[in-house]
Amino acid sequence: MLTPLGPTLIAVTQRVATDARTGERRDCLDRRWHVFLAASGLRALILPNDTAAALDLVRGLDPAGLILTGGGDLAAYGGDAPERDAAETALVDWASARDRPVLGVCRGMQHLLHLGGVALERVTGHVRTQHDLRVGGKPVSVNSYHDRAALRVPGHDWDVLARAADGAVEAVRHRGHFWHGIMWHPEREAEPQAHDVALFRAHFAVASRAKKCAA
Predict the structure, then answer these.
(1) CATH topology (fold) of 8-214
(2) Closest CA to 124 of 74, 168, 156
(3) Tens digit of each residue's pLDDT (9 = 90 or more) over 151-170
């Protein structure tokens, strides 16, 4: 049985959305993230897509790790939110310099791969669908909401943890940084899935214990 970590504070990034009526650009986070994080023994420090403000928050409140959430393309692939890319890149640098774990979800994994020099390619059959994977040697069913993925990942920097039937990479871990990426959205499941909860707890547990020992 999994033991709760307690409410460990984790920095969480947001997508950028433009209001069609007013043109207002907004930072947005799916409210289901709070349900999933609570089930994982975590709580969110929600960050704006403003580099200076986001860094001020993490430096002041010192979260135990960082989640890069999904939503939209990277600017390098035609996305319209370069300010998000800039803020997230600075936050990954902040986390890596302090050996804090980073977990990228969908676009977040794409961003980590991009920072690691891995190219993304167009894929089909991955939008609004469910498919089966083997994660950690166990079969799981995951959702899919992306039209870009990595097909080739350099083996000297990354461990590929899961692939879809068409070869698209679905989960990775970096060998030199405390980075983990998944291409599915755990927050979009009707109920938090045990394999996702276990993954998030395990990835952030080391940082949580280290911070408690240092306190």
Answers:
(1) Rossmann fold (3.40.50)
(2) 168
(3) 988 878 999 999 998 999 99
Backbone angles phi, psi at 72, to 5 degrees: 90, 165
Domain boundaries of the chain, sorted by first residue: 8-214
Query: What angle, rounded to 10 degrees, do the helices at 82-97 and 51-61 form?
Result: 30
Please give the Cα distance from 95 to 138 (Å, whole number): 30
User: Which pLDDT tens digit goes with each residue over 110-132?
Assistant: 999 999 999 999 999 888 999 88
CA distances 152 to 17, 155, 161, 168, 169, Å, are 30, 9, 13, 8, 8
CA 185 to chain CA centroid, Å, is 9
Q: How far apart are CA 125 and CA 92, in angstroms?
A: 30
pLDDT for 88 equals 98
From residue 13, alpha-carbon distances to 30, 35, 56, 105, 132 in Å are: 11, 16, 14, 10, 27
Residue 181, H or E segment: strand 179-182
Residues 142/153, Cβ–Cβ less than 8 Å: no
DSSP H helical segments within the chain, as ranges? Answer: 32-39, 51-61, 82-97, 107-115, 194-214
- The H or E element that residue 9 is part of is strand 8-12
The crossing angle, in degrees rounded to 10, of helices 82-97 and 107-115 is 70
Considering only CA atoms, which of 143, 174, 145, 178 is closest in space to residue 157?
A: 174
